[in-house]
Amino acid sequence: MRKELISANQLFAMIILFEMGTALVVPIGLESGHAVWISILLALPGGVLLYLIYSYLYQQYPNMIISGYTQRILGRFLGWPLSLLYIPIFMYNGSRNLREAGDLLIASSYDQTPIFIINAMMITAVIYVLNKGLEVFSRTAEIYLLIILGMGLICCFVVIAAGLVEFENLFPIHAKDWRDALTSAYPSIWTFPYGELVCFTTILPHINKFRVAQRTGIAAIILSGLLLSFTHAIEISVLGTNIYARATFPLFTTITLVNLANFIQRLDALVILTLIIGVFFKMTIYCYAAMTVTADLFKVKDARKLAVPIGIVVLFSSFISAENYPIHLDEGKVFMKYILTYMCAAVPILLFIVHYIRKCLGLLR
Amino acid sequence: MMSISSSLTDNLDQLRERLGNSPDIIIRKFTLMSAQIQVAAIYVEGLIEKAVVEEFVGHMMSIDSFDGKHPEIISAKDIFAFMKEKARNVSEEKIIKDWDVLFEALFSGNTILLIDGIGEAIRGNTSGGEVRSVTEATTQVAIRGSKESFTESLGTNLSLVRRKIKSPNLWIETMKIGDVTQTNVSLMYIHGIVNDKALQALKKKLQAIDVDAILESGYIEQLIEENVFSPFPTLYNTERPDSVAGNILEGRVAIFVDGTPFVLIAPTSFFMFFHAVEDYYQRFDISTFIRLLRFMCLIISLFGPAVFIAALNFHQEMIPTSLLINLASQREGVPFPAFIEALMMEVTFEIIREAGIRMPSPIGQTVSIIGGLVLGQAAVQAGIISPAMVIVVSLTGISSFATPAFNMALSIRILRFTIMFVAAFMGLYGISILLFILIAHMCSLRSLGFPYMSPLGPFIAENHRDSIIRVPLKFMSKRPRLVNQKNITRMAVDKGKRGDSDES
């Protein structure tokens, strides 16, 4: 099979859509109160560093995905089970995103529709795109990046034009706030959304040049970090810390407040659309990552065959894993703290260190 | 393959038998006085120009008028040699040895000369006959720009483009496709500008075609397109010579098919179907505005009724209160759900449109006007349809006419129904899910190996000068880049410059 190649633009679009996916809509880093936007910025360097590690590993093993070089670095007996762990984690993370989208949709206007139908439709689209391959997916991402940015501009404009922004909600920032911001930045925001980029270790081998991958990746992460910080700053400035912390979907609440000239109002559809698009891309990337890792570990020749089984597992785990939304959020905290941090940050850092030591000792190759 | 025998009577019998004594095959027999040798001239009535045939035959038979000047001509061989020489003077001469070639020449409008005692035939090009003259374009009308359009004659069509591009690099290749129809299919491109990879791919595909008949360029289109089950057309068709000229100057290939005024162009991109030649003739601001308008029409004609249904069924909160009350009061007596209402109206609209096309043309217009007005008005008054729905449906219908390419407008019409179904069941969420699938599908399409969504996905910044908007001609100094299959190397089409020559 021909190796699918993706361009810098496409990587850029995918990273931005992935980063903004759900992080744009759900509240992140609640511990820091009104300084969330600062924590997002504080976590940004960490995210870039993490990406540098991913791209370094990619540079060392340009034709391998994460499961490939884990086995190469740690040896087969340690590496194989370790990379096996990535499959359920990618799938669970994907199913979490699906659950969030489904719940927002049910809360907003589909109260009569079972979550199974809503999620199944989304999964259908994901399976379709996965079957078409990464190239098609990345082109789709390019088009949707423009759509998302367009909608973002509209949302920003209407929120500001409606005079909802109150900067008192953002300031003052005391020394204690800085400390809070830092504690929520590391590790919680660091891992979600930045650490989730570990999925891209399966996509990077499709880029021809290392430099391109590194530069565009960093640019995309920085841009998405700034956009996220900006969006959350606006959300807080409009809602105030109190409502922001309590709202399930703060961006949704923010937009519902907009009323321009009694005509431009109820733009919630835009937010829902943003979330759908974000979740779609994030989930497809997770499923793709799970798919390729599975194919790599179990020596499946055509990874696309796995799209349907993985899609179905993700679909069912999306609503079986938690009875209701609060439980889902609770599970999320545990998952993020005890699992995601290790798989996104600790394992790649470990790989990096082991690789470096072995390289220095001349034990590789 | 049967070769021609040397006996004239045998040959003529064979000819009559194989052509089933068709009366339009004219066989004229002459006996040359000088040598008492029989010669036959064969042509098909209607495919030839009478005067040319007379001239050709006259020249050939002029052997008799020499009266002793050519005493050496006594045998059939001599006559054949003489005629061969003569034929070269009169028109392009060619010697035919077997029947298949003979028939092909005969039905292309040639006159065939058979000489008794010689197993070879001489052919002279005398083609002519009735063809439609060049008229104004009927399907792609432009306010400004050349008025001429292609006809059914391949030669005329090729010459119409030749007249616009007077370059030796304008190359034409002709091949015959269709076992029975033996249709001439010509590829036209500009050597040095055309993408060779696309050209080779196209030739390969054309050569692989193995069918009985090619009656219209639509046959070729359906036989060479890559994704048969896609609703989107991947080949562009036009009947305007200036459109063909513009497209081959951008490095594309035009496929002319004998017998149809519609010329195919490949490779295409999705956005090409929303461009009209006039966009380049008008000033850039006007063209840009009109293009944006067309894309808006695309969105309306795809999503208009679907969004309306979704809003009424699922997202009432999206509609401003006063408008919602207004809509609700309109729909008060309507016995159907919004989806059924929309479906009824859309189907009616499609029926009127189809009937308007198929009706004899004098009544066609009337049907559409009467049908549209009366049905719409009556349906509202009868309380079956709400007035708002009539507005939405007619807006959608009119929007779909704004697409310059008719085949694209057709696929949009089909897709609209699908989107309406999904909207009725799942509202805006359904629409956006379908849109994911649709856009992914469009991104997966290729036209001769070129990504269909080309300037957007993959994103090519340079090509955006002429896709959704159009920048001033001065800034369009480069031809659009057609991305090759590997998505990295680009083809070198920068040899020629477009627009002002002093630009870089």
From TrEMBL, chain A:
**Main localisation, per the record?**
membrane
Whether Transmembrane helix counts among this entry's keywords is: yes
Which InterPro entries would you find in this protein's record?
Spore_GerAB (IPR004761)
The cellular location(s) given in this protein's UniProt record come to: Membrane
Q: Where are the transmembrane segments?
A: 12-30, 36-57, 77-94, 114-131, 143-165, 185-204, 216-237, 243-263, 270-291, 306-327, 339-357
Note the topology in the membrane: Multi-pass membrane protein
Keyword Transport found: yes
Protein family (similarity comment): Belongs to the amino acid-polyamine-organocation (APC) superfamily. Spore germination protein (SGP) (TC 2.A.3.9) family.
Q: What is this protein called?
A: GerAB/ArcD/ProY family transporter
Automatic annotation (TrEMBL), chain B:
Source species, domain of life: Bacteria
| InterPro entries (alphabetical) | Spore_Ger (IPR004995), UPF0353/GerABKA_families (IPR050768)
Tell me a GO biological process for this protein.
spore germination
Q: Which family does it belong to?
A: Belongs to the GerABKA family.
Q: What protein name applies here? A: Spore germination protein
Cellular-component GO terms for this entry: membrane
Organism, scientific name: Paenibacillus monticola
> What are the protein's UniProt keywords?
Membrane, Transmembrane, Transmembrane helix
Q: Is this entry keyworded Acetylation?
A: no
Record field: transmembrane: 253-274, 295-314, 373-402, 414-440
